[in-house]
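Format notes (please read before filing issues)

Several people have asked whether sequences and structure tokens are stored in separate files. They are not. Every record keeps both together, in the order shown below: the sequence lines, then the token lines. Line labels are part of the format and must not be stripped during preprocessing.
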Amino acid sequence: MARAEGTYVDPSALLKLYIHQRESAAMSAWRARAATALTVTHHGRAEIVNGICLAAFRGYISADANDDALASFDEDFAQGRYVQADILWRATLQRAAELSRKHTPALGCRSLDVLHVASALQLGFRRFLTFDLRQQRLARAVGLKPVAPPAR
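Then the structure lines:
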């Protein structure tokens, strides 16, 4: 069984459940094995919604597929597959700034990637699921165990 409990899942990984991407099959298989609800922050939720809508804007999906993906995402919240996490923003942003100062010069991390790692730490997660190699390196550097479903 996949270990979802104690795992912060980066929104870019969750997006693969709604928009077909190279790692979508691996993410779907991991999610199917994960028995617990996943925690999603407010900014993570906004990132997923924006990712779906951006795919429509770029022509990767049709307007109907956009509507279906958004409805599926909302349904996953309604059915309890996700739980909304409240986070203390001042502390999280401060932690993100500290992580940036310490790790970005060596790892080249992007702002949202650092923010998600800081969020995972603030929420007390032990594992971090992402397909992004820089984000995996940052997660490892701060003591989180990186999780990446194997590519299919």
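For reference, the curators noted about this record: The chain has one domain: 7-147. The helical segments are 11-15, 24-33, 42-57, 63-78, 89-107, 111-122, 133-141.
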